[in-house]
Amino acid sequence: MRRTIVPPALKNVYEQWHFAPAVVANGFVFCSGIVGTSPGGETPGEDGLKGAAATLSDAGAPLAALMAVMDSEAQFATAFEALKAILAEAGCDLSDIVEITTYHVDIARHMETFMKVRDRYLSEPWPAWTAIGVSELIVPGGLVEIRAVAVVRG
Fold first, then answer.
1. Is residue 79 a contact partner of residue 146, using CB atoms and an 8 Å limit?
2. pTM of the entire structure?
3. Residue 82's pLDDT is what?
4. Which of 2, 16, 54, 99 has the fewest Cβ atoms nearer than 10 Å?
5. Among 47, 15, 13, 50, residue whose Cα is nearest residue 33
6. The predicted structure's pLDDT at residue 46
7. What is the pLDDT of residues 50-75, one digit of tens each?
8. Helix (H, G, I), strand (E, B) or coil at 99
9. Pairwise CA distance, residues 61 & 119, whole Å
């Protein structure tokens, strides 16, 4: 048995790009990778899904319409806020995460900032974590993509 998780703000992602932001199966929530995006690259605050929702409101919007938040620290926080919103739609929160995989552009340059932001969102007991350096991400200007697995409550 599986359940697809699609927050209203990501409905166009599901319909246009044919992938689920998350899937619940066998007691786990499997979250697709998320990058901190916003219209025009500005810092969106705590609405981590604002960027994807705004840039994909046009059904014909190309992938290149997505834009990463320009400030690295704000981009990382926006990605965690988006992950938090996706997990909330599944009835979970960040404390339910058991594993994260992060994909980093220019990993050595941004890791210290990323870890500082990560520690604002995650706490003990720490999830398993794999960090992978990559040359680029699907979102122009993206510095990190966060993929997570969480346990379903109850």
1. yes
2. 0.92
3. 93
4. 2
5. 13
6. 67
7. 666 666 656 566 666 678 999 999 99
8. strand
9. 34
What pLDDT is stored for residue 61 in this prediction? 62
Spans of the chain, pLDDT less than 70: 45-48, 50-65
Position 6, amino acid: V
- Chain-centroid distance, C-alpha 152: 18
Token pair listed for 9 = 């703000």
What are the structure tokens assigned to 60, written together? Answer: 């014909």
Instruction: Classify burial at 103, counting beta carbons within 10 Å of its beta carbon; exposed 0-12, middle 13-18, buried 19 or more.
Output: buried
* Rg of the chain in Å (alpha carbons): 14
Using DSSP bridges, classify how beta strands 22-25 and 128-134 pair: parallel, antiparallel or unpaired.
unpaired
Degrees to nearest 5, angle at CA 6 with 39 and 76:
45
What's the token pair of residue 7?
Answer: 């927050």
Which tokens in the block code for residue 117?
């932001």
Quote the CA–CA distance of 2 and 142 in Å, as a whole number: 30
Q: Is 15 exposed, middle or buried (0-12, 13-18, 19+ CB in 10 A)?
A: exposed
Tell me, what's the pLDDT at 53?
A: 67
3-state secondary structure labels for all residues of 114-137: HHHHHHHHCCCCCCEEEEEEECCC
